[in-house]
Amino acid sequence: MSRPVAAVLAGGTGLTTVVGCGMGGDAYPSQTAKDWITYADHVVVATPTQERDANRRDFTQGAIRYQVDRAVTFRTDNLLWSSRHPAKAIGKGFDMTAPGWQVYTSGSRVKRTATDAPRLETGHTYLLALRWTDDGWVTLGEGAAVPFDDHTGDQGEWCGRVLSKGDVARGERFSRSDDDSLEKALLGQNEQAVTRELERAGRQ
Length: 204
Prior knowledge:
The protein has 204 residues and is α+β, with helices and mostly antiparallel strands. The protein is 19% helix and 35% strand.
């Protein structure tokens, strides 16, 4: 959700002012439909059904007591596309590691977030371009994890916050004119639009 909405949530001043949600490097190219069909094994609509703390890291100095990730279990709602030779088949459900929590010595528990991307929370639905790695299923990068509540592009949870249609509409005014990402193209669109964009990329 980099271009349009982040500027709104940051007061229109840019991504780097959103704590924990600034620009970050993708593990794989993830911005365009061509990126998705080149580097992903599957493109799915999926819903987190449960989560648990994982990979706890304790600190002996400073205000932070420990950090944890979340092991999130997803339900595969709709398989939209698969590589001809995927590294691993996708089932009715799958697990993925997501940002967890930062716990302070005061006892407060604060959400940790990915760079400029959804946190992947229960109660929401997502469009994901997935790749199988030695660490399990991962998204290609921030451009390959799209809020998809009500099966609508860019609607739902982003960076631990819930975006309304109004947020997205206002955010579009700040969007870069040269932004040709698949995520932007899917704004307000459904699964059929996703499939159409991927098929078009496959013919190029």
